[in-house]
Amino acid sequence: MNTEEGSVFALLLLFLLQGSIGLDILSQNNTIQDGNLLVSSGKKFALGFFSPISSSHRYVGIWYYQVSEQTVVWVANRERPINGTSGALSIDSDGNLVLHETNGSFLVWSTNVAYALSNYSTTAQLMDSGNLVLVQDFSERVIWQSFDYPTDTMLPFMKLGLNRKTGLNRFLTSWKSPEDPTPGNISYRIDPTGYPQLLLYKDGDPYWRAGSWTGDRWSGIPEMTRAYIFNLSFVNDPDEVSIMYRVIDASIITRMIVNESGSLRRSTWHDRDRRWIEFWFDPKDQCDYYGKCGPNSNCNPYNTGQFECTCLPGLEPKSPGDWYLKDGSAGCVRRGRVSVCRSGEGFVRVARAKVPDTSKARANMSLNLKECEEECLRDCSCTAYASASESLGGSGCLIWHGDLVDTKTFADSGQDLYVWVDAIELARHRKTRSLSQKAMVAIILVSILTALLLAGFFLYGLAIKKRKDRRSHNPQVSDMTNSTYFNEPQSVEDRSDEPRGNRDVPLFDLSTVASATNNFSVLNKLGRGGFGSVYKGVMDNGMEIAVKKLSKHSGQGVKEFKNEVRLIAKLQHWNLVRILGCCVEEDEKMLIYEYLPNKSLDTFLFDKTKRLLPDWRKRFEIASGVARGLLYLHQDSRLRIIHRDLKASNILLDTAMNPKISDFGMARVCGGDQIRGNTNRVVGTYGYMSPKYAMEGIFSIKSDIYSFGVLLLEVISGKRNGAYYHESPSSLVGHAWELWKEGNCEDVIDESMGDSCTKEEAFVGEIFLKCIQIGLLCVQEFADDRPDMSTVVFMLANKDVVLASPKRPAYVFKSKHHGANLSANDKPASGNDVTISMLEGR
Ligand SMILES: *[C@@H]1O[C@H](CO)[C@@H](O)[C@H](O)[C@H]1NC(C)=O
Ligand SMILES: *[C@@H]1O[C@H](CO)[C@@H](O)[C@H](O)[C@H]1NC(C)=O
Ligand SMILES: *[C@@H]1O[C@H](CO)[C@@H](O)[C@H](O)[C@H]1NC(C)=O
Ligand SMILES: *[C@@H]1O[C@H](CO)[C@@H](O)[C@H](O)[C@H]1NC(C)=O
Ligand SMILES: *[C@@H]1O[C@H](CO)[C@@H](O)[C@H](O)[C@H]1NC(C)=O
Ligand SMILES: *[C@@H]1O[C@H](CO)[C@@H](O)[C@H](O)[C@H]1NC(C)=O
Ligand SMILES: *[C@@H]1O[C@H](CO)[C@@H](O)[C@H](O)[C@H]1NC(C)=O
Ligand SMILES: *[C@@H]1O[C@H](CO)[C@@H](O)[C@H](O)[C@H]1NC(C)=O
After folding, report:
1. Is the pTM of this model over 0.85?
2. I want to staple 390 with a disulfide (CB 3.0 to 4.6 A). Which of 231, 287, 325, 415 is the partner?
3. CA 119 / ligand 4 centre spacing (Å)
């Protein structure tokens, strides 16, 4: 740099430092022309003119400065586009921010703040939060800010809701289309009537209800309790009712948008992949749509194969004909005549509920649940009650009168709703409850007998089959000992001539699979996940199979698919679910697995009625079995498979309760890169995912180790990592860590195991403390600190090994106001067998 240039540069610098123009500031007498930018001081956001994709119109907007894909978060002139590049943004003489077209001759948009008039001079500044603020120079008061007029994007630190004093109501409205930022039909706002709720509206009608605030989350978004990324806060006082979220790690770029088709979506920017990765959206299932089942009924999306609507206790379908035809929109009404008040009536509990619409509910925060019940009983028109701040330990009281609208059942969260019933109905419910306990015993006996019978039939069938095969060369394709193979898919008839060495994975034909599963009947459906649905099937010889029908659009070519299945099928281990074969025909791709009659581990572990089933010894064996299976996947097999979605519902149990890992290698079978490449979603289940993977989509062997650690803690504690429980607001991982630090980690151990181990108590206690320590070692914050699977197996197997002291795990936030909004399309274990809980591919 020569001296002349140097002095010019210095002058320029001086000018920038002293003059009124900062990069992030627009002051009076300056304008931003089309082509100029205002950039926030930390270079996070930029303001300027832009055109949406496939549109020539110009708009003034704010977008991320460092995100390579232009992502607009706010638009000034949503409804008045500018035709050419003649627009100019400035501050006019009365202090308002104005947008003119054609050399200042035509006013397009203005902040229109009346009191800006009183003292002229104002300055606009673009903040690093993405907020554009207009400040009165004299008083330094913010007289206008873009955060008060959001468009379709909610950013961290932005408030949504109503200022009761000024009447300002901040809410999101979708664009009309990706080309047109004009306000569309969808909005997302707080309804302050009754007990405030957050709702998504379509054409002005409720469309999906995030529900009411329960202390640390919304009643309709139970996933939020997990403390990951966000710190959510809700204010409801005489001044305002509003929500806001903060990001705990400021380097995370995240946003929430309402999409023009009525979907609320949350995503984070993954710089490494240069794309937005969606990690949460709502509405998800049919029960999310407002009032799907009409008034006074409950919608349960996990009623696999059945009608999702059921009447709330004591009520019956208003229109039984429609109900029969699976149209629940008419809802339910009270049976018979309304019975008299104060004559032995009571309440029936509906568990895991999303409480009904609270716009007509009454709240009294000073009552506890017991007083709430009394209040409801006293009031003869009360139809239901529930705790108002359930997630903070159940204080507060919500009381409903009249219809109960939009109730839903969650898989493993939600709260208790107490529905008013008359004396007769109450007696009926008490009776069925005690009956059902007796029935449980009977059911267990019957199922054991059935299992024995089935096993007998199966063996018999196999024997017959073997005999037949010796005689005939042309049987139906059925199991892996004799069928067609990939190498010669055409030669179904003469496969017996093939050399033995080529026979690796059997190819089933579509007609066989279809007839085994009753043509993929809903009655045979075991569950559904991101890669497709799973069906139970019975082959002609009586053998039971599980068929995973992959979604048509997910995945790759037939040849690659077969290659991958062939590789995956070679993974054979006692603790892996066995692949029997596959079926590729008429653009259908299916995987055939052995069928395991017991459900997945989560149903035993988390279901209160069955919790006693695995005793401590079994639990330890299950944990060790899973560890060995995972070790095989990671190290001992030739392929080195990262599971990516290890969790209790992916561990199936055979009749002897041996654990078998399912769903391994799905990323390969469905085209590993395509999962991330085409769908913009992370595969896996929040709660089990390591933060690195959740946030950045970077997976490694150590991400699986993290999931294993979570699973181990769940097995020991009998509690779900994600589920909320009252003793502590943090997740199971956080809870275990806190107890560990205090030296009280016996408290993690499932209390239901108390009596199963009286004699060997000391010994068992020791084993479990060791398991907790190993679990905590696996969930440590830094992947490098986590042990690998061979070390885990070694530690589990050797009594005397000295363990390291775990460091702080990921995801521990001590605040009471934590709350996160992470959820995958986390389908519950609804079926008997292979449950897939991965994110939907598109
Ligand atoms: C803006 O320009 C007007 C006249 O054009 C002048 O009177 C005023 O002082 C200027 N304001 C600033 C802040 O420079
Ligand atoms: C842009 O052009 C259209 C016609 O092409 C016209 O109707 C509209 O008024 C123009 N917009 C503005 C802001 O001048
Ligand atoms: C706008 O101003 C430019 C120069 O500043 C001039 O060339 C152009 O003709 C003007 N356009 C109109 C419509 O006045
Ligand atoms: C406007 O600002 C001046 C100082 O610049 C102050 O003396 C005056 O009181 C202010 N007027 C109002 C209405 O705020
Ligand atoms: C918005 O509503 C109007 C009228 O109700 C309808 O014609 C239009 O298709 C809707 N637009 C979208 C994007 O749903
Ligand atoms: C969450 O927000 C509250 C204020 O609402 C704050 O006191 C707390 O420190 C925050 N927690 C974290 C982990 O940032
Ligand atoms: C809006 O959400 C739906 C899913 O609900 C999705 O299919 C669609 O692609 C989304 N549209 C945009 C523009 O993101
Ligand atoms: C709440 O309940 C208490 C005790 O019954 C009562 O004194 C109070 O008035 C109630 N508050 C409201 C707002 O109804």
Report:
1. no
2. 415
3. 6
